[in-house]
Design brief:
Blueprint (H helix, E strand, L loop, with lengths): L1 H18 L4 E12 L1 H5 L5 E11 L4 E12 L3 E4 L2 E19 L8 E21 L7 E21 L2 E8 L5 E11 L3
Antiparallel strand pairs: 1-2, 1-9, 2-3, 3-5, 4-5, 5-6, 6-7, 7-8, 8-9
Amino acid sequence: MKKLFLILIVSVALSQVAFAQGEMRIGGAANLALPFGDLGDVGSSVGFGVTGLFVYSFSDVIDFTGTLGWMTFGGESTEFPGYKAEYTVSTIPILFGVRYYIQKPSSGPQWHVGGEAGFHRWSVDTKITSDNPFVNNFSGGVGSSTEFDLGAAGGFTSGNLDISAVFFFINTQYIGIRAGYTVPLGN
C-alpha cells in the first residue's frame, strides 16, 4: 500500500511539472572546487571541471535544478627509493536541487539560496614508476566509489549569467564555485 501511495504522489508531481507553464533553461558552467576534510587530507589540490545545468522555473521565486558534469582534482606524488607513485582524483557529479529567490523578479541580479542533493561518482587513477630496469611500471590502477552528497547553495542569476557556490558536507567535502551561462528552451 505504501508503494502504491508513493507511486501516486510521484505521478501527480510529475504531471504537474509536465503541464506547468514554467520556463526551462539549459547551459554550461566552469567549476572550481576547494577540497577540505577527507578529500583535502589525501593531498588533493584545487579541482577544476565543467558541468551542464538544467533549470526549471516552477514559480517566480522557486527553481528546480539538475547538474551533470566532470571534475578533476590534482593528486599527489610520493617517492620511495627507486619508485614514484602518482595519483589523480576525478568525479562525475549527478545532482538535483532547488533554489529560492530572495526577492521578487526584477531586471537586476536575482539572489538565491537553496541546496543540492545527489551523487558523486569518484575515481582514483594511480601510476607507479620505477627506476629499476628489472621492475615493470604500473599504470592505470583505478579505484572508484559512488557517494551520496548534500550541499547548501547560494548565488545569483542576471540575464543568462548564472553564478553560484555550494558547500558539500556529507561524504564529499568541498566548496564549489560555478560560473555558467544558460539559454531558454522552447518558447
